[in-house]
Give the backbone structure.
Amino acid sequence: MGLRGPRRRSYLPVGLTLILLGLTAATATHAGTTGLSSAGVMASVGMTASAPTMGWNSWNSFGCGGLTETLVRETADAMVNGGLLAAGYDTLTLDDCWSAVSRDSSGNLTNDPVKFPSGMKAIGDYIHGRGLKYGIYASIGTATCTGGTAGSLDHEYMDVARFASWGVDYIKADRCNADGLIMKDIYARWRDAIVASGRSIVLSASDNNPTDEPWAWGPLTAGQWRISPDISDDWTSPPGQPPWKEGMIDIFDRNAAHAAATAPGTVNDPDMLEVGNGGMTDTEYRTHFGLWALMSAPLIAGNDVRSMSDATRAILTNPEVIAIDQDPLGFQANLAGDIGNGLQVWYKPLAGSGARAVGLLNRGSASATMTVSWNAIDLAPGIATVRDLWARADRGSFANQYSVSVSAHGMALLRVVGTDSPVSDGFLSDQPWTYMANEQGPVERNSSNGGGGAGDGGTLTLNGVPYLRGFGGHAPSALEFRPNGSCQTFTAEVGVDDEVGTLGSVLFQVWGDGQKLYEGGVMTGETPTENVNISIAGIRSLRLQIVSVDSTADDHADWANPRIACADRSPPNQPPQARFTTTRSLVAPWEIVAFDAESSTDPDGTIVSYMWDFGDGFTANGILVRHAYA
Ligand code: GLA
């Protein structure tokens, strides 16, 4: 006798399965092209990327004149004794004005003999002795920004080697007196000099001129890159502000336009914090800090940590807000909704099933009740829990949305945990994403990007081959999906879309749970289409990333036929569990045995039709079949 229910197509043919299992996350089809992890620059394929830098820098509070050896020692002590190191602030950086006007007789950068009489190795030893990392400032041009002391142009290898000999762990390479230089190339020199030094040093590309598009070349060059002029200690730029300074919220807006460039280990840097410096209210400083956390930005305190108020300390050390910043998925928040009157909802996905960080930002001048709907933050409808991260209190469970009153210039910062819209076997281009950021317009579904607003693309085309399905992106570009551990492989064909001819230059990456699973080579419009075929077994968060390589111009790049293979059910061809009804437990041949299809189950799927073979020459179709042997 046999029961035949319809089988849902599930497992791959055995031969194919073996091939896919042979490809682990760390052995994707292309090895990482950058291989720069030794400099703390980029995570190689299979390596876990570092979280955004946390530390302190002298500039915002002390400028040029206040930076001395005594200040550094006292600050190091205060960072340890005041709980900053314990909260994660582990890098103490000396900004401009530590060095002498001229290089020494050997041509090396050297210390200002009055401000740093013990020398730069000794101050590094003190910093290390307190369990902190040692950061130092340099200029990529002919002189530092104050104009007074030597720059590092054409001395990059020599200066980095010198820094390495002092035990430096972090270099802020500032764009000063450097007009006419090609920033991508100059900063690549610093990256390569760090690799050559043999020391693991984080490169902070402090390119304070956004016309250089640091977010285009930054990800392949540095751990972090500036995106703006210098921050000023104001909510917004006051009238008459010089062009090299901008208010906090203006820099936040500027950074939002390049959200897709931030990825684990390589992040946009909206400049150092002003929290505690006196130009904003505590409410505004909470908003400032919360926005930086939502952006996955470096958190570099810029106040006098030797004498901060309790309110400032509470802001800087709130562990739940810091956790939002340091989240391993490394997304930069996106605008989920602009309600008008300065009311905005920002969010980013967090590691953890259904987890989101949400900021309800009130830029207006009166308090307002604000609402976030689960739909706006790419959660499925239903119940989600809400935790207020400033109050550090659970607010409860809420259906489909949550509302709260937010004061003027305030931001409610929430952790919402609901249900991710799941993805299943098939083309991703037909399925819901949980995050989308893209340099030009949105990522388009089933058409190319076009380079403008929504819906302006054409047929996805790679090297003359048109594709019906896929994503048309414009680098930098980032998408997230949540297979939630139930899929095995991701495949796609990738390249620069034919609509830009031979132009464009991009690099494709696939990330799983904050770890880089795949990185292809640099591609232009002339590069043959690449096949991506990687294991995503066990991966809960799948990120599709397109990185710019030089400028963002013409970077129209496609994920064609992006597919995931999933087997989120029992293995196929399991025996069905059939139920029979009889009048007695032992039946005689002439007594009726009834097969009850509705109570029977098939582990491979739902039974919708069957044929029953009685084994005595009779077969029958139907829900209930009665039969007695002749
Ligand atoms: C530039 C940088 C600042 C600071 C000063 C120092 O303006 O952008 O962050 O380092 O130089 O001179």
In short: Confidence is low (pLDDT under 50) at residues 1-40. The first strand starts at residue 2 and ends at 3. The pocket of alpha-D-galactopyranose is lined by residues 59, 95-96, 137, 144-146, 174, 176, 206, 208, 230 (CB under 6 Å). Residues 24 and 535 are 6 Å apart (CA to CA).
